[in-house]
Amino acid sequence: MPSISSKGLTVVGRSLRSANCHWLSAKPHDRFGPPKLGTPVSGCLMIFLAISLIATAATEKRLSVYSTAANYSVPIVQRQGHDYIGILELLEPLGTVSAKLEGSRWRLRYNNVLADFMVDKIRVRVQGRDADLPAKFLLENGRGLVPVASLNSLLPRFLGGPSTLHEESGRLFVGNVATYFTASIAVEDSSHLVFHFTSPVNPMVATEPGRLRMTFAHDPVTSPASPTLTFSSKAIPSASFSEGNGAAEITVATTTPLMATFSNDGRTITLVPAKSPIPTVAATTPANPPPQMGSPAQQPAANPSSVPRRYFAVVDASHGGSDRGEALSPTLAEKDVTLDFARRLRQELESRGITTLVLRDSDANLSLDDRAAFANTTHAAVYIALHAASSGHGVRLYTCMLPNHNGSDSGPFRAWPTAQSSSIPLSQTAAASIADTLKKIQVPVRTLTAPLRPLNNIVTAAIAVEVAPPATDVSALVSPDYQQLITGAVANGIMAIRSQLGAAP
Ligand SMILES: [Zn+2]
Predict the structure, then answer these.
(1) Which end of the chain is least crowded, N or C, by CB within 10 Å?
(2) Integer Cα distance of 360 and 357 in angstroms
């Protein structure tokens, strides 16, 4: 796919090519500068740093495409008063496609289907049958542009099956890929609203006074029979479905602040009253609003059991959703490995009596600010971010190297970029303790400092654990034995300084 964009592209399936990693690593140093003091920071971690940079990329009009082969998006351009799309870019993720110009005839081959487009004409011939486009076919620098409005009639001729264009909202469904949902008030508690989806979903969740909004940019979520749903609940009177700008949106009206919890592999979302009102998040974390955050009250996905419990440790499976992290091998994405390690570390910590929350317990998209804000609201004693890397051996333990302090703490508030400052000694103690337990079992370990987000935004002891394979075989990262060896040692390292961590203010 040539049209990789920070906004649009979630490619599943064969056109993956670790696009995320390569593209992101193109400019990691732009703003943060090179790592200081010769700190060796792995590629994956630099990508991690760069992620916040792309959030501000300009929005352009795009068509989101959902199919069994891939979910992706392609740019829409305006020509002569019509919306146009590059037909090659549209078809490429779906099959084998090529094109060549013969005189004024642009010949397109998609798998075994041949089509002739006439430059600046509306007539097109697909598999020997003529059809008319609603506006002229355009050729720009070898790029064939067709009107978006033609896709409903044109695509089935190429694909041999139905496709449904939602032209107004910029969404195209190829084949039977739609995800449907139901919404109902929980029988046992009328303040809980339960959504069931026919496939796993991964929305961005944002809250504002009076409503919670779930935006599905990468999921083919489709309207229920009626776009407005009403409930017999005082706390949650109604919800509505809408779509636009390449995404679907469910807006839930509420009289009380809600948070979203994911279960059933992302097929169930339960909205429950947030234990503490949203504003307390701000009171314990940023004095300044977090930078580059879509909404200051965005809430990350959390384990449903997180609502009533207090946690000693928060384990963050880094990356997730459309951020796949490093492509550890052609088939192994870092985001999946970090989730494995996170769940196993929780098991190891819980078995030692340390209550643990896995911050990303699904394939959710979470911004670094989301992660920090959520970790801070749990008031846990220690935050552990997990990364995986294909290069090097053993474990690298990172504590935070703070960005230049602006002295902007005010009263009880900590400046968001330097929230970690007073916890750095404790973070280093935690890293040293874990390094000791790893050395005891002969795992190569290095302890490093790096300007690594979101560690700097965490108010409590915070470390990042980056796990590399023991030898050259990357697949060891998914071996249960290796995962257990590492997470067991990390858990022992935490245990060893538990009272120090617990005593921290
Ligand atoms: Zn990583």
Answers:
(1) C
(2) 9
